[in-house]
Inverse folding.
């Protein structure tokens, strides 16, 4: 059924989407925290 | 203490307390490392796309989405997604292409109101600032936190609201946009992942579409009514009703917190990337929340959960299906959704007074330290107003419609014409447009507050005028074209412009 399929698709995007961004975020956040308060 | 509706295991409580401790630690850490107002309010203007994604998604999706949109799903089915969520998401997509232009036009910009100050002078800037302050008062999130603490801990609503406000103000006071951005990502992951897991586990545990539909038939009393749940614009939701519901989404175009993030981004490219990555997240979250609402109605029909109020159904379903530990993460995620929205708006409200009004008008020579102090106290004032509103209004949707009306009618036209017109715009055009938009929307609201009646079936406030039934939402459709006309006429007839030198 189309609704079952769509729920799987959107549910998986909800779970996998943010987790995929964790590595990307971690690198950026580390750099930002390191640079915090440094003169630009 | 009141009755606990969603009881939690000790493991769940430990997860929630761990999350709260994490927030305070981040805020404390950020407070020790920031050197000036730019660091505090703009996170040093170096936010890259991954940090922006977390803060964009979690700031613009709070408890209003979780409780409000799931409630619409509970009553109206998938129309909740198409009428409420899709217009907002489409406008976020528009912002992916508009936001970089703002960043390019004002690389050193700080707030949206600043555009009005620079392009039209002080009167227009002050009026836009007042509209932005009103818009940024987040009573809705305060009510949501009070409601949540009531559900999980049995704390009376008023006390829960107060506790939530004190906590959010405390860590925003200490950490500023740095703390907000760093914690927003964790909040973003927690709220997205747990809602996704709840959707998949819940939908399949009930038995997929056929069982959910059977539950809706039992709940509504007929196959035809249950069928409405899976048709767009079904039942009483005519295309015109859907349109009227969705116009408040135009507020996206003049969101003060969004502009703060646009200007805090490292470059136009970063903010564009962030919006484009955020759009599928927003869409999926909306979808999940609407379907959790539908599942709530169905689960009541099937006798899986007791007959709870529409805005409690999502919690009842999630509490039924999520295992210990994950339920704690979910509640932390829900708290996160509220706090990430509340902290952002408190900070923006503070900045309007501290940066736009105090430094921009009252004391241009003020030191960074002074501006930061005024910003923090204005943030506190905004929290007090939010709590008072939360205790005053029974139907927070009315407050939201007013806030959306005031920001759309006051800010959108002056800000967009001022930024994107090739010729310098006339001072009088921005000033008159902002003044008319602000006063007309305030008058409209007072009229509806004093003479309006609440239509429970449609969930709108209405007034009868000369045989026509007017909705509160129509204010945006009536006032905005008038503001546009006033702006165009004044711009054609006016003479004075703000010189670039004066603006700088």
């Amino acid at each position: 059924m189309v609704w079952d399929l769509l729920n799987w698709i959107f549910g998986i995007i909800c779970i996998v989407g943010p987790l995929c961004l964790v590595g990307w975020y971690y690198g950026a956040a580390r750099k930002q925290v390191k640079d915090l308060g440094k003169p630009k | 203490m009141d009755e606990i509706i969603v009881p939690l295991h000790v493991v769940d409580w430990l997860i929630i307390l761990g999350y709260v401790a994490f927030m305070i630690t981040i805020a404390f850490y950020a407070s020790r490392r920031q050197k000036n107002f730019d660091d505090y309010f703009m996170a040093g203007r170096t936010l890259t796309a991954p940090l922006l994604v977390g803060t964009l998604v979690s700031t613009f999706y709070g408890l209003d989405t979780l409780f409000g949109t799931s409630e619409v799903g509970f009553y109206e089915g998938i129309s909740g997604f198409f009428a409420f969520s899709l217009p907002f998401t489409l406008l976020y997509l528009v912002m992916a292409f508009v936001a970089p232009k703002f960043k390019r036009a004002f690389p050193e910009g700080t707030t949206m109101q600043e555009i009005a100050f620079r392009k039209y002078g002080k009167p227009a800037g002050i009026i836009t600032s007042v509209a932005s302050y009103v818009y940024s008062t987040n009573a809705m999130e305060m009510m949501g936190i009070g409601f949540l603490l009531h559900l999980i801990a049995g704390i009376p609503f008023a006390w829960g609201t107060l506790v939530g406000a004190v906590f959010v103000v405390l860590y925003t006071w200490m950490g500023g946009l740095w703390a907000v951005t760093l914690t927003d990502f964790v909040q973003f992951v927690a709220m997205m992942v747990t809602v996704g897991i709840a959707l998949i586990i819940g939908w399949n545990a009930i038995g997929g579409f056929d069982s959910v539909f059977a539950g809706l038939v039992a709940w509504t009393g007929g196959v035809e009514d249950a069928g409405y749940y899976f048709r767009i614009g079904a039942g009483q939701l005519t295309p015109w009703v859907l349109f009227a519901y969705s116009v408040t989404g135009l507020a996206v175009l003049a969101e003060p917190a969004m502009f703060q993030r646009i200007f805090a981004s490292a470059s136009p490219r970063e903010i564009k990337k962030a919006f484009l990555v955020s759009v599928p997240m927003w869409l999926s979250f909306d979808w999940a929340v609407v379907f959790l609402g539908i599942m709530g109605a169905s689960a009541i029909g099937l006798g899986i959960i007791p007959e709870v109020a529409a805005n409690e159904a999502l919690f009842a379903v999630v509490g039924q299906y999520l295992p210990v530990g994950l339920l704690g993460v979910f509640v932390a995620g829900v708290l996160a959704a509220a706090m990430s929205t509340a902290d952002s708006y408190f900070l923006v409200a503070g900045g309007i007074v501290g940066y736009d009004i105090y430094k921009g008008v009252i004391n241009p020579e003020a030191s960074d330290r002074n501006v930061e102090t005024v910003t923090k106290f204005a943030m506190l004032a905004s929290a007090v107003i939010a709590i008072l509103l939360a205790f005053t209004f029974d139907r927070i949707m009315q407050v939201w419609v007013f806030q959306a009306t005031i920001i759309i009618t006051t800010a959108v036209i002056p800000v967009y014409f001022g930024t994107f017109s090739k010729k310098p715009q006339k001072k009088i055009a921005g000033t008159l447009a902002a003044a008319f938009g602000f006063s007309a929307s305030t008058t409209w609201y007072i009229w509806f507050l004093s003479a309006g009646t609440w239509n429970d079936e449609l969930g709108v406030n209405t007034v009868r005028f000369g045989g026509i039934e007017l909705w509160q939402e129509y204010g945006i459709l009536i006032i905005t074209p008038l503001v546009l006309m006033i702006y165009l006429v004044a711009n054609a007839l006016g003479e004075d412009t703000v010189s670039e030198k004066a603006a700088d």
Q: What stands out?
A: Chain A touches chain B at residues 1, 3-4, 6-8, 10-15, 17-19, 21-22, 24-25, 27-29, 32-33, 35-37, 40 (CB under 8 Å). The helical segments of chain A are 2-35. Chain A has a mean pLDDT of 83.
